[in-house]
Design a protein that fits this description.
globular; 1 helix; binds zinc ion; 7-stranded mixed β-sheet; mainly beta; 5% helix; 3-stranded antiparallel β-sheet
Length: 132
């Protein structure tokens, strides 16, 4: 099993080792809810993910979309949509304790809404820490 949780530790969860798929989403809703230029999501059957500590708060981010986050620190954790993704749950994989343990994402989605410079982000000069 994979383990994860929010930044403050109030919410903890476990998820099966292998999701149905894992992708990078560039949509505006994900960006705003995460405060980040993209969000990585792993899709699971709802029964393959279990909250083991705390109680996420659920917010309707669209007519059917529900974003589950820590009410104490604000970390986004899950997404559900019973109209379009019945019985499934998306997990924000950057909240895993060991994000490299889940299979690498296989696609980028909602690229139509991607921030322009994100298409070149992989070409930026890289530093192990901060530049000296
Ligand atoms: Zn928290
Ligand atoms: Zn999205």
């Amino acid at each position: 099993m994979l383990t994860g949780g929010c930044h403050c530790g109030a919410i903890r969860y476990v998820a099966a080792d292998t999701p149905d798929r894992h992708s990078v989403c560039h949509c505006t809703d994900c960006r705003r809810s995460a405060g980040a230029p993209m969000v990585t999501w792993a899709v699971y059957a709802a029964s393959d993910v279990r909250v083991t500590k705390g109680q996420p708060k659920v917010r309707a981010s669209s007519e059917h979309g529900r974003r589950h986050f820590c009410p104490d620190c604000g970390t986004g954790l899950f997404y559900t949509n019973e109209a379009f993704l019945p019985g499934l749950i998306d997990v924000q994989t950057a909240t895993l304790d060991e994000p490299d343990q889940v299979m690498a994402p296989s696609a980028q989605v909602q690229v139509a809404e991607r921030i322009g410079w994100m298409s070149e982000a992989h070409t930026l000069q890289a530093f192990d820490r901060y530049p000296g």
